Amino acid sequence: MSKQPLSDYKEFRKVLKEAQNIVVLTGAGVSAESGIPVFRGVGGLWRTHRATDLATLEAFKTNPALVWEFYHYRRDIAFNSYPNTAHKALALYEKICKEQGRKFCIITQNVDGLHRKAGSENVLELHGSLQKVICTKCKQIEINMQNPICEALRGRGDPNEEQDLPVIPVDDLPKCTKCQSLVRPYIVWFGENLDPDVLNKSSKGNLYKLAICVS
Ligand SMILES: [Zn+2]
């Protein structure tokens, strides 16, 4: 088993065929083909805001409505996007591995849910998910596939508005079903730590013999 990165396709196929434990790491590049914005570099702007400035707890505390508008925009794109050939190939390969009794896992930085939409089952979402929310008070995590997530966000989130629209009152933003407090997107923002559970499961990836990086 080579510990060097493989650039030889033939050799790669051989190693892949023999591998019993496979982990695939994916990032934004996989979803770009499905039309998911990457939000990197100069193009990383939403209206006049840098996406990286909106994806912080400070931004949410200062202006939860604006951050929710940004995430409504991102959810809307993700929910209306379809898995591409790469997502489908990985889902198919997982199925094949399962039938052959081999282990297969995807560890992704993507939050768009497209791996699961393609049929992948063993997926660890390192940076959270646009399909989930977490309560700011009781910390309950819920799956929420509603689009828009609340009526106040309907028609909002357009990245091309020249300026921000009037702020939505906090009372009209998405609420926790358990305690009725404000929820936020279940996303690991800049400056936050990864979910220890997810991290723990991912680190078991060290036990995997073959790691494939698709970024
Ligand atoms: Zn709650």
Automatic annotation (TrEMBL):
Keyword Transcription regulation: no
SUPFAM superfamilies cross-referenced by the UniProt entry: DHS-like NAD/FAD-binding domain
Keywords noted in UniProt: Metal-binding, NAD, Transferase, Zinc
GO molecular function terms listed in the Swiss-Prot or TrEMBL record: histone deacetylase activity, NAD-dependent; metal ion binding; NAD+ binding
Gene3D superfamilies: SIR2/SIRT2 'Small Domain
Residues annotated as catalytic: 127
One GO CC term on file: nucleus
Boundaries of every Deacetylase sirtuin-type domain copy: 2-215
Annotated positions binding Zn(2+): 135, 138, 176, 179
Domain of life of the native organism: Eukaryota
InterPro entries the UniProt entry points to: DHS-like_NAD/FAD-binding_dom, NAD-dep_sirtuin_deacylases, Sirtuin, Sirtuin_cat_small_dom_sf, Ssirtuin_cat_dom
Protein name, entry field: NAD-dependent protein deacylase
